[in-house]
Specification:
The complex is a heterodimer of chains A (547) and B (469). In chain A, α19 packs antiparallel against α20. Chain A is elongated and about 90 Å long. Helix content of chain A is 48%, strand content 5%. Chain A is mainly alpha-helical and 547 residues long. Chain A has helices spanning 58-69, 74-77, 100-119, 121-127, 137-153, 159-170, 180-191, 193-196, 216-228, 234-241, 248-259, 262-275, 278-281, 296-311, 322-325, 333-339, 364-369, 378-389, 412-421, 423-437, 474-484, 486-501, 510-522, 527-535, 538-541, and strands spanning 54-55, 197-198, 203-205, 208-213, 329-331, 350-352, 462-463, 471-472, 542-544. Chain A contains 25 helices and nine strands. Chain B is of the alpha/beta class and 469 residues long. Chain B is 33% helix and 11% strand. In chain B, β6 and β7 (184-188) form a beta hairpin. Chain B is globular, with a radius of gyration of 22 Å. The chains are: A mainly alpha (547), B alpha/beta (469). The interface between A and B is medium-sized, with 35 and 34 residues.
């Protein structure tokens, strides 16, 4: 991933006013209509990454069923196997395994959905507004299959698909319950590959065998899952089938409407939590003897603070990069005790101003998740900053390195000195440890300290190789220099693109990252503008034609 | 698709053809067969990831001095006596896996001198082991399952007691089961979670003595599930033609899983497999927590053996493999020896007594399973164990280490021993056989022959005639 380290030359961008909805989220980020690149022109050869087949994540699975039928099956979906994550994101297509467990759990979720929707007269009526009995049975089932099948598969069904679903319904034609057929039809639709996977067939681009353009319904599906985390609404699907997403202006208009909705805000929170590793912060374990003040409540409060901090910069006119240099923290009573400020009156998290804190790197969540259970880790702190904020991850340590749990009385300074004296270590560690050294003024629990436990002095400064000027002291200065750096700007784009495309980035994505970074900068780093810019980018509208 | 013509009906028709294949058995050498017709045979291969004596030790705490019946039980196999199963468990000793230097041609089912470089090809797939090369043939459990297990809910169980790697070992040392699939020879990662294994086996199952109304309701649920899966598992050209090759492969995997689920539901005999009182629906097991070097494997071994016992008793499965500990196992044996040390480290220290107790821990759980099978009655009153063939193999033996030239070392595949239990195929039970120079896999092949699978496996065609007479 060397290419990510070198900042690419920005493309000249012509901002054009595509004001479709007055007062809506900004419109600077969209793709220019000029500059030789009109809306139907495919991307240049070699500038599209791969587009592996994506499976619904458990969260998307539950949301889709809820939006299709109005019933909540999240209790069943909770037992879906965990997919694991790549780059921190749990929606990476390449690790979405299909195991016997999956097949069984999808069956359970489909059965629960069918049972629940038919048990409630209101929900049932919303799904099927005719009586599947007597002479009208076939017609009633037929129209239900066409409507529900289209919404489940996110496209109009082929004739043989309608026939197959009808045949499943007919298996129980003799059942005294007239809705037994509907139950089987729902179950079959919700276990079908067309529901579980986001199959993208695309349409050929004349003269190009390497690229496919997504169809309207396929774009609607990408838009809805990426921005809202769920299946497209009937209205969006109608609009797509009417061709409204086929040109850039239409696509941008719909993307802006979706991006302004509270559901997009929820997905943005999910993105930020995974990007910043809030989940791991909520599972930190510290040595109870060395840190008697640490408990599950503090850990949860610390994770919640980071989510809250990020949330303030994901919406409206704020720059996302503000999460690095916000001049405040959020403290509840537990954190207030840790931070040495008076407990907030409300009992919940409240914004507080603390001289040595502010932004992500002063939060207890960050400081704890990058520590060993018994002492700070300059390596982990440096690695987090490189991976999460700068997208400049260190290579894996060589195989012959034995990770020895540190003694609590080995300071970060000593650990760093060991690394820098060994030439086999210093090459990589000089990019990591000095970042952590500048944060040694916080212990493993995130408490501010003036010296090490034995009274020896703390390192006075850290430095971040690759950023000019590299020196800093403490969390506030680090946050300011990260927020101001080009690397962090580019990194937000990279992180969001990983999340939006459901895969790690590849060499071919460099072009897309360059382009999006420029738009992100022009939009003054507003997250909603980045979302719309991605949704209207070539990487979103086209896919490479896999062999 | 016509609703009347279910794909699985077609598949069942094909299964009839497959069932005719074991007729090849008729061409096998004549041997004693005293098994009751109509009662299925069961096969289980188990494994312990350790050798049988420590560095520098000549003394063997596994192989008995007495040849034949009424053999003596030294420390390593003492649990056989404790469990009272020496009359149904045989010990085959003096076994050898031939080892040659890295640059020499490897003999059939042999290995290079690099002891841990490849853990399971030789023992369970019967193939020669090249350094850091993948296993090249299906393992014995899968070969057996192809012949006798395909109509069961779980054609082949692949389970492991050791819940984590805990350190060394890992890649290729944690899988002993390999099967042929559309994607070629595929390692079958063993399940370790008692909860998932319970679910795999007993999901949807009702024992023979269940309420008839419940049985009828379960049958209806089953039929409807099959109708749905029949549709969603269909590999339509339309679907496949939309996908590139990598995506098509993923979609095929997905459809494979749907069809596997369909097979499990099709093969599920609601109300038991016509077996005796031994088939009861167990409670869902507790899930022992995960530790950093030990996750209560002593309890896990009990639970997994109990589940395998019931899988056999209820005829939910007829074939499988159980790895007690991984090859080169890093599991902490403190619970047994009283101090913290991994199984692998104990193999390399000079405390023969503790090492033999570790061997005995594996033997204890094997003996317990054998004892439960013996005490379970089949429908005709015979013992379930009479229809089983079970083996327990260890990773190494003890003797000269051809890699280091050490005279007596734990990195040796000489003086290996394999336990054999069960009377399937009319096997002689409860004797010590010294099979000097034979391959340990010959004992596994004997177990395969006992359940009527006479194909051999990999490059192993030999067997232990003393067990068959």
């Amino acid at each position: 991933m060397r290419w990510m380290e070198s900042r690419a030359v920005r493309l000249p961008i012509l901002a054009c006013g595509l004001v479709m909805f007055g007062g809506c989220v900004g419109n600077i980020g969209e793709r220019p209509g000029a500059g030789g690149s009109d809306s139907t022109e495919p991307p240049e050869q070699g500038t599209l990454g791969s587009a592996p087949l994506r499976r619904l994540t458990p969260r998307e699975h539950a949301s889709a069923i809820f939006d299709l039928l109005g019933v909540d099956v999240s209790d069943v979906v909770e037992s879906f196997p965990d997919d694991g994550s790549v780059d921190g994101f749990d929606n990476n297509a390449l690790v979405q395994a299909v195991t016997p467990q999956h097949a069984r759990r999808w069956q359970e979720a489909a059965e629960a959905a069918a049972e629940r929707v038919l048990a409630s007269p209101d929900h049932r009526l919303a799904l099927i507004d005719c009586e599947p009995v007597g002479a009208g049975r076939a017609e009633c089932l037929g129209s239900t299959i066409e409507r529900f099948g289209r919404l489940s598969f996110r496209r109009t069904l082929a004739a043989e698909e309608i026939d197959a679903l009808r045949a499943v319904g007919d298996v129980v034609i003799d059942d005294p319950d007239p809705y037994a057929s509907v139950s089987l039809i729902i179950r079959a639709a919700l276990q079908a590959p067309a529901f579980v996977f986001r199959v993208e067939r695309g349409v050929p681009v004349p003269g190009r065998s390497d690229v496919l353009r997504l169809t309207g319904p396929e774009l609607a599906t990408r838009l809805s899952f990426t921005l809202w985390g769920t299946t497209p609404s009937p209205e969006l699907l109608d609009a797509a089938e009417a061709g409204e997403l086929d040109d850039l202006e239409g696509l941008a208009a719909h993307a802006r409407v979706l991006a302004a909705d509270e559901r997009a805000h929820d997905v943005a929170r999910t993105f930020a939590a995974q990007w910043l590793r809030v989940g791991a912060m909520g599972e930190v374990e510290l040595d109870a003897e060395l840190f008697p003040a640490f408990d599950a409540e503090l850990r949860a409060a610390a994770a919640a603070e980071v989510a809250l901090l990020a949330d303030g910069f994901l919406w409206g006119q704020a720059s996302v990069l503000g999460l690095y240099d916000a001049p405040w923290a959020y403290a509840d009573p537990a954190l207030a005790a840790l931070y040495g400020v008076p407990p907030p009156a409300s009992g919940g998290h409240e914004q507080v101003t603390i001289a040595e804190r502010g932004g992500l790197f002063g939060t207890a969540g960050f400081l704890m998740v990058t520590s060993h259970p018994n002492t700070t880790s300059v390596v982990k702190r440096g690695k987090y900053v490189r991976e999460v904020a700068l997208c400049d991850p260190p290579p894996a340590p060589p195989d012959n390195v034995v990770a020895v749990p540190p003694e609590p009385d080995v300071s970060g300074l000593e650990a760093s000195q060991q690394h820098s004296s060994d030439p086999a270590c210093s090459g990589c560690h000089r990019r990591l440890d000095p970042i952590g050294l500048g944060l040694e003024c916080f212990d493993a629990m995130g408490r501010a300290r003036a010296s090490y436990g034995d009274g020896s002095p703390l390192p006075t400064a850290g430095f971040v190789e690759g950023i000019q000027p590299p020196e800093f002291a403490g969390a506030v200065e680090l946050g300011r220099m990260i927020a101001d750096s080009d690397m962090s700007e580019r990194c937000v784009v990279i992180q969001y693109l990983r999340f939006a495309l459901g895969r790690s980035l590849e060499q071919a994505d460099q072009h897309a990252v360059d382009d999006l970074e420029a738009r992100f900068a022009d939009a003054e780093h507003r997250f909603q503008d980045l979302v719309v810019a991605v949704a209207t980018s070539d990487a979103f509208r086209f896919r490479s034609a896999s062999p | 698709m016509s609703p009347k013509l279910h794909r699985r009906t077609v598949l069942r028709g094909l299964a009839g053809i497959a069932l005719a294949l074991p007729a090849l058995e008729a061409m096998a050498p004549k041997r004693a067969r005293a098994d009751v017709p109509g009662i299925p045979k069961r096969f289980l291969a188990t494994f312990g990831g350790m050798s049988l004596a420590t560095n520098g030790e000549v003394e063997d705490q596994v192989a008995p001095d007495v040849i034949g019946t009424d053999y003596d039980c030294k420390l390593g196999i003492a649990p056989l006596a404790t469990a009272g199963v020496t009359d149904v468990v045989s010990v085959v000793s003096g076994l050898v896996i031939p080892a040659v230097p890295v640059d020499q041609p490897i003999p059939p089912a042999g290995r290079t001198v690099m002891f841990h470089s490849q853990c399971f090809g030789t023992l369970f797939s019967g193939t020669r082991t090249e350094v850091m090369k993948a296993v090249t043939a299906p393992s014995s459990d899968q070969r057996v399952a192809e012949v006798i297990g395909t109509d069961n809910k779980i054609p082949c169980m692949a389970y492991r007691v050791q819940a984590g790697h805990y350190g060394d070992g890992g890649s290729r040392c944690d899988v002993m089961s390999y099967k042929n699939t559309d994607q070629g020879l595929t390692p079958v990662t063993p399940k370790v979670s008692p909860g998932l294994i319970f679910q795999e086996l007993f999901d949807g199952f009702l024992p023979p003595d269940a309420d008839p109304a419940a049985l009828a309701a379960a049958e209806l649920v089953r039929q409807r599930r099959l109708s749905v899966l029949d549709l969603v598992g269909a590999k339509t050209e339309k679907l496949m033609s939309q996908l590139g090759s990598a995506d098509r492969m993923r979609m095929e995997q997905h459809l494979d899983q749907i069809r596997d689920l369909e097979t499990r539901i099709t093969n599920l005999t609601i109300g038991g497999g016509g077996n005796g009182a031994g088939c009861v629906l167990p409670e869902a097991p507790n899930e022992p927590g995960l530790g950093v070097a030990y996750s209560d494997e002593d309890l896990r071994a009990e639970i997994l053996c109990d589940l395998i016992h019931l899988a056999f008793a209820c005829d939910l499965s007829r074939a499988g493999s159980l790895m007690f500990t991984e090859a080169q196992s890093s599991m902490d044996m403190q619970f047994l020896v009283g101090y913290s040390r991994s199984l692998h480290d104990i193999s390399h220290h000079d405390n023969l007594e503790d090492l033999s107790r570790c061997v005995g821990w594996h033997v204890k759980h094997f003996a317990r399973l054998v004892s439960k099978l013996r005490d379970t009655q089949e429908i005709d009153g015979s013992s379930l164990l009479d229809h089983c063939a079970l083996t327990l193999c260890f990773e190494g033996g003890h003797g000269p280490d051809p890699q280091t030239g050490e005279g007596w070392d734990t990195h040796s595949t000489e003086n290996m021993a394999v336990l054999f239990a069960g009377g399937a195929g009319g096997m002689t039970q409860g004797r010590h056989v010294r099979a000097l120079g034979k391959h340990p896999s010959a004992v596994i092949n004997t177990a395969m022959r006992a359940v009527g699978v006479d194909t051999g496996f990999g490059e192993v065609t030999d067997w232990i005639p003393e067990l068959e007479t």
